Amino acid sequence: MSHPQPPQRQPTPSETDRYVRTFHNVALGALIACPILALVPPRKLDFFTFGLVGTTAYSANYLTRERTRRSIWQHVGGSKMGPDGTVTESVVSPTERANLDRELQYAKEEMQRLQVDGKHSAEPSQAARSAREAWKAQREKEIQDDLDVGKGFGEMIMDQISDVINWRKKRDDDDDDG
After folding, report:
1. CB within 8 A of 74, min separation 6: which ones?
2. Cα(136)–Cα(148) distance, rounded to whole angstroms?
3. Where is the composition biased (Basic and acidic residues) (predicted)?
């Protein structure tokens, strides 16, 4: 059996105003106090400092959104957001718009050219598929050989990074010495 829940009471306008005013004052206090607390000795970069920085950012964002109906990210992004969340105006100069249109037209032409050129070569050839399969088989054999020797995956990854950095000189030198 379920117990009947009492009906939820709606807050009165004075309670709502008091809540909004309190939240505003707390955000103002945090905006001032958190940076001061972060700068008080001993200054160190730890979880507490990141919490203070995050609280400062959240407070600044809350106060900005309260005053302008747009968050800091919407201000930085440059788009004009209405109170309902829709974009009302885009901040793009006419020259930027012309450049964007030109780039879009160029991209469309390139796509059409690639579709015309690539109609015959859309599927990889049999030689390309067999080369890919041969490379996969060779790579799987190398991995299995390394595992049989006792190397871990971390060591194999570090070997690959070393090969790339040294342009495989290390492996070639080892083959010459052995």
Report:
1. 81
2. 18
3. 130-141
> Which 8-state DSSP code applies to residue 80?
E
Question: With contact defined as beta carbons under 8 Å apart, do 87 and 81 qualify?
Answer: yes
Task: Please confirm whether the linkage preceding 42 is cis (ω < 30° from 0).
Answer: yes
Instruction: Find out whether 156 and 166 touch, Cβ atoms under 8 Å.
Output: no
CA angle 28, 33, 37 (to 5 degrees): 160
3-class secondary-structure state, position 77: helix
Q: How far is Cα of residue 59 from the mean position of the Cα atoms in its chain? A: 23
The most distant pair of C-alpha atoms in the chain lies apart, rounded to whole Å, by: 86
pLDDT digits (tens, 9 = 90+) for 129-168: 888 888 888 888 888 888 888 888 888 888 888 888 887 6
Using DSSP's 3-state secondary structure scheme, residue 175 falls into helix
Full-model pTM = 0.42
pLDDT in tens, 46-90: 999 999 999 999 999 999 999 988 888 888 876 555 555 555 555
Strands (E), the chain: 80-81, 87-89
